Amino acid sequence: MDITFGTSRLERVFNSESLLFQEYGPENGRCIMRRMAVLRAAPTLVHVPAMKPERRHQLEGERKGQFAVDLRHPFRLIFAPAHEPLPRKSDRSFDLAKITAIRILAVEDYHR
Hints:
This protein has helices at 8-14, 17-41; strands at residues 2-5, 57-58, 67-70, 76-81, 101-108. By secondary structure, it is of the alpha+beta class.
C-alpha cells in the first residue's frame, strides 16, 4: 500500500525508530512499527486484518471517513484513504478492495 503522512513532522517521527520510541514510548513504538509493516505489505485496505491484533476498523462521528488500527490500549493509529475520488461501492460504503493508498493522520486515544 502507498503510505503518505498528514504532516512532515509525523513522517519524520515514523521514519526514525529512536524518534518513534521517544514520542510514543518503546511499547507503542514497537507496535507502530509492526502495524506499519502490515499496512505497507497489504496491497489494498481489505488485506489489513479486521481481527486482532491489527483490528482495522472504520471510525464514525467527527472521524467519519477515517480508519484506525489498534496499538497498545487505548491508543490507535489513525489514517484515511488517499484517493480522489474515494473508491465507493454502489451502497456508498468504501470499496476496501480498491483502496491502495492511505495517509497516516495521528496516533492518539480518541476515546477521551
